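User: For a benchmark we're assembling, each entry needs the component sequences followed by a predicted structure for the full assembly. Here are entry 17's components. Please fill in the structure.
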Amino acid sequence: MTAMKNTITKAAIDLFFKKGYYATSISEIARACGIQKASIYYHFASKEDLLFSIMHDTMAALTDYLRRNLEKVNGIEERMRRAVRCHVRFHLEHQKETFIASSELRGLCNRNYLQIVAMRDEYEEIFQELIAAGTRQGVFAPCDVKILSYAILTLCTAGAFWFKPGGRLTVDEIAAIYENFIISGLKQGRIERLSA
Amino acid sequence: MTAMKNTITKAAIDLFFKKGYYATSISEIARACGIQKASIYYHFASKEDLLFSIMHDTMAALTDYLRRNLEKVNGIEERMRRAVRCHVRFHLEHQKETFIASSELRGLCNRNYLQIVAMRDEYEEIFQELIAAGTRQGVFAPCDVKILSYAILTLCTAGAFWFKPGGRLTVDEIAAIYENFIISGLKQGRIERLSA
DNA sequence: GTCTATACGATGATAGAC
DNA sequence: GTCTATCATCGTATAGAC
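Assistant: Structure for entry 17:
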């Protein structure tokens, strides 16, 4: 990625996050980069191409982050705890990108939409497999895997909507709260331990 | 509300839900009503006025629904269970309106934005008081009231994003799943009973 | 790679007849 | 209350010079 392409992407992330995709114009992005709006089209084929690029890279980085973190963790409860922590951390540490990725899907044409949704489904399946395995092993209570995976993911994703960096709680404190809340919900009484 | 004003509102709800506020044009709404776009402006001062009207009425109905349902319920756990059930039911049964109310806040000017946010805060406070009371009574585990109230509300609100009427699960089944999940998360081990 | 200039369409909103 | 006609503006995107 060239320096200017990177500058444009960063400016677009800031503006899409602050004003929304539709409300942000190409000329605003250009102004934020100190170039003319026509110059954007040298780097991106269209405004939607720019949005798609942001979403695609974010989803790829998110899935990669989770996969790498789960590699060496054993035991279903520890794996789920780690997964929740990763999900929350990534969403709060990349608040703008993840906010865009989860709220601007309607800005995509069908072809691009399907590709991002496929990446999201692939990510969600990691959580669904964790829930299913935990249920089989009796660590988690029997449940509707799909509904609970949506619940867990949207719960943590929502953090990216209200989180204010430098606020009352740190990312790790919020992650810990969610982690305990979710594990308790999944166990529904099968309590063995709570993390420190 | 006149018949035509009602027709316009319903058409706008359908379109804002399906395509989003920015992507929906006044002429589309007019076409769906079988009138000319200029006629819309006899009933609403502007496109934003139409959006604000939808959001305002939805928030008022939501809060009223919760308040009426809590009136005769005693005991903190039962009150929280009822509150969660109401929240989920209202969001799934008024899926389009609640989706709009929680995703199109950016379409409002500052004045209108503040008014809707104030209504939302008032609604959230009902949940925050329930959590705080439950914690004081030792029914729920000590926790961060604000974070958990956001968690509970966004968790259930998210249902309005993926729910498909006539799908695999009924509204009441989904509400029951959320209810047990949330109560377990709030208790974190203080298990007394699970609802049937 | 970035610029100036412009094509072209769509939008929200208003004026005034009926 | 609804219509036709129109305004003013702004949007994305392209052409072609440098």
